[in-house]
Design brief:
8-stranded mixed β-sheet, 3 domains, nucleotide-binding, FAD/NAD(P)-binding domain, Pyr_nuc-diS_OxRdtase, Enolase-like, domain 1, 22 strands, about 500 residues, single chain, binds nicotinamide-adenine-dinucleotide, globular, binds flavin-adenine dinucleotide
């Protein structure tokens, strides 16, 4: 940690224009956009590390772990390289070392960045204590009261949910923090969940050498928020790699011999028995990847009349990122805490808008312009799941579009038939799907599944956000021989 202003220091200021509680990427960006190009002041209140979950325990370490998995899998299917790789598995030591280099638990550079653009940092746990007022409890227990002249931004994110199942919490299971910061690779593991965290973690844990790996998901498919074929292709890949998957399964009970808090990423004690659907398995570690709990508890929301009981603890905001139900335009929410889209890039997008709204309101300007109104959270959210194959999507699935009352037409194509994909690796497996609004003849959703398709997604995002007509897409000529030629094949299949 750097020498940011310690909460409780008597000689520090207590009033800023903008106070942000939570220093993840959305909190940082909200502060930046609220003050840039002005003499306004801002402070970030952070209880742990500036940079948040994404930098140290989520996006960065997980993607650093997954990149070697992707490269090795491709090399195994690429004559000329295949023989060099042979049967070798991942070099776990080097992979973990590279992961560490991306997610060192030190926020010196982040604090330096903040201070460099005029943002102060106060260490401690922030809590609303009335209108424009934040009480900060430092690690020594001292409490300091800060006042905001203009705005308070709530950016406290989420933490891993550990369901209240018999024996589960007592077993001290791994959460995503342990999985991304894995130090000891267990021989036998079970993963509870079938969403993005479960699927990505299964991918790297298996590659790092977990010998017996069992996924237990309560939903009927993996990656249930995506098109069904995405979960099916990932399931097929898991099974091929020796992972056992049980879907539509509910864990009944967990019991662990000698649970011990041995620290993040280490095995937390003795063997664990996991009982589900009338059977039981014994593993050395258990990862819980069953969703996220918003950081709204004990945030003092009651002191300003905000009740989150109807929104599962998420803080509801409007399209200017103002907290709904709070008068005076002073309280904002960004990032995971809002429940809009639990993704770093979407949190940062919201933060750019919130910051711009705060700046506009401070200058007495209107806030109904394009940079001060959130559009993308309404059906234009892009996401890449870095499994092997990768799953990339933007906009609603066919089913979600139908549920929203859109008269949709769909078109699908086997990406393996595209020359650019066949050149990437032998035996390429992949699929693409477009969801088209018949009424406007524009693209509303797209999904690509396959090796190395992450970078393809932005083309679809631009088309969806720009409401590009399907006819105009005929004139967006993809280069030969790239995977992007799937766009042409999709258009041709549609006729
Ligand atoms: C394993 C994993 C992998 C992921 N990978 C990706 C990915 O590849 N791409 C992607 O887009 N998203 C990914 N996500 C999601 C992404 O991590 C979140 O969307 C993002 O971190 C949200 O940012 P946030 O600032 O809203 O919340 P957080 O990152 O949770 O940050 C909140 C911050 O607020 C602080 N805080 C909380 N309460 C208080 C308080 N009372 N006072 C002071 N400080 C407080 C916390 O210490 C924390 O620093 C992943 C998530 C997980 C779990
Ligand atoms: N690459 C990325 O963009 C990325 C990576 C990781 C996480 N994230 C984000 O983080 C958020 C959290 O991810 P997540 O996977 O924890 O949540 P999720 O909501 O995506 O998935 C949770 C899964 O757990 C299952 N589940 C819940 N309770 C269960 C139980 N008791 N037993 C068995 N299964 C159970 C659900 O059916 C679901 O499949 C997501 O919104 C995701 O977008 C993004």
């Amino acid at each position: 940690m750097s020498n940011a202003t310690p909460a409780g220091a008597a000689d520090t200021q207590d009033t800023w224009d903008v106070i942000v509680i939570g220093g993840g990427p959305p909190g940082e960006i909200a502060a930046q956009y609220a003050i840039q190009g002005s003499d306004r002041t801002a402070v970030i209140v952070e209880q742990e590390l500036v940079g948040g979950e994404c930098s140290y325990w989520a996006c960065m370490p997980s993607k650093a772990l997954l990149r070697p998995v992707e490269v090795l899998a491709t090399a195994r299917h690429l004559p000329g390289v295949q023989s060099l790789v042979g049967d070798h598995s991942l070099d776990a030591g080097a992979t973990l070392a590279r992961r560490d280099s991306f997610a060192e638990h030190d926020d010196t550079s982040q604090v330096k960045w903040a201070n460099g653009i005029g943002i102060d940092v106060v260490r401690g746990r922030g809590r609303l204590a009335g209108v424009r007022t934040v009480a900060v409890t430092a690690s020594d227990g001292s409490v300091r009261t800060l006042t905001a002249r203009l705005a308070v931004v709530l950016a406290t994110g989420t933490t891993a949910t550990v369901p209240d199942l018999p024996g589960l919490r007592d077993a001290l299971p791994w959460t995503s923090r342990d999985a991304t910061n894995v130090h000891q690779v267990p021989r036998r593991m079970a993963v509870i969940g079938g969403g993005v965290v479960a699927c990505e973690a299964t991918t790297w844990l298996r590659a790092l050498g977990v010998d017996e790996l069992t996924v237990i998901g309560s939903a009927p498919t993996l990656l249930g928020k995506n098109e069904p074929f995405a979960g099916e292709l990932v399931l097929e890949a898991f099974r091929k790699s020796g992972v056992t998957v049980h879907l539509g399964a509910r864990v009944d009970a967990v019991s662990r011999r000698d649970p011990q808090d041995t620290g993040e990423g280490n095995i937390h004690g003795g063997e664990i028995e996991v009982s589900f659907g009338g059977r039981s398995i014994v593993v050395d570690e258990l990862l819980v990847a069953a969703g996220r709990t918003p950081g709204s508890r004990d945030l003092g929301l009651d002191t300003v009349g905000v009740d989150t009981s109807d929104s599962h603890g998420f803080v509801t905001v409007d399209d200017h990122l103002s907290v709904v139900g709070v008068g005076g335009d002073w309280l904002y929410g960004v990032g995971d805490l809002t429940g809009r889209a639990l993704l770093t890039h979407m949190g940062k997008y919201q933060a750019r808008i919130a910051g711009a709204v705060i700046a506009a309101r401070a200058a007495g300007k209107p806030v109904d312009g394009p940079r001060t109104t959130d559009r993308a959270d309404h059906g234009q959210v892009p996401q890449v799941t870095f499994t092997h194959p990768q799953v990339a999507s933007v906009g609603p699935t066919e089913q979600a579009a139908r549920d929203a009352g859109i008269d949709v037409e769909t078109v699908e194509y086997d990406i393996a038939s595209v020359a650019g994909a066949a050149l990437l690796e032998d035996g390429y497996t992949g699929r693409a799907k477009l969801v088209i609004d018949r009424a406007t003849d524009t693209l509303v959703g797209a999904t690509f599944v396959g090796t190395d398709i992450a970078e393809l997604l932005h083309s679809a995002t631009v088309a969806v956000v720009g409401k590009v007509s399907m006819e105009d897409l005929w004139h967006a000529v993809p280069s030969y021989p790239t995977v992007s030629e799937v766009w042409l094949r999709l258009l041709e299949s549609r006729g």
